[in-house]
Amino acid sequence: MASYKKTFKHTLSAGKELGIVKEKLLNNENALQDLHNLKNDISHLDKTIGGQTSNPELVQQKLLDFISKNNYNVNIVSIEDVHLFSDNEFLIYSNQIELEGTYNNLVSILYEIEKHFKNSRVVSTQLYSKKNYRTNSKNLYLKIILQNYENTK
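Given the sequence above, the corresponding structure tokens read:
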């Protein structure tokens, strides 16, 4: 009993502490790998949701250039000023454009913007028609809202 209290008790408690320290060291190594994985996930999400931009007006110009270079028979009816929303972590830039044309042309240009326009992401679309009382005909319109963001931290 005396030898247990003097030697074995301390040896067993030191063994337990060694196990705890090894486990903490392993968790620290896993934390570094988790941090690396999180950075990769963030860069993937940046690409997916519109990435960061240094000049939001440049995105609007690139959008107009993208639409005009494609040979779809659509008319640009209006383009709104860049809308800015900020919270504690991000500045969110929204661009809104309104196009007029046939259903097939509008859907085709929307598809091209979603698939190939990488500077911003489509977040909302709306197809609607208005009656032109002068010509007694209906015109089809497409309103597209695109967003990208900038990290403020």
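Residues 56-151 form a domain with the Alpha-Beta Plaits fold (CATH 3.30.70.60). Try to locate this feature in the token string yourself.
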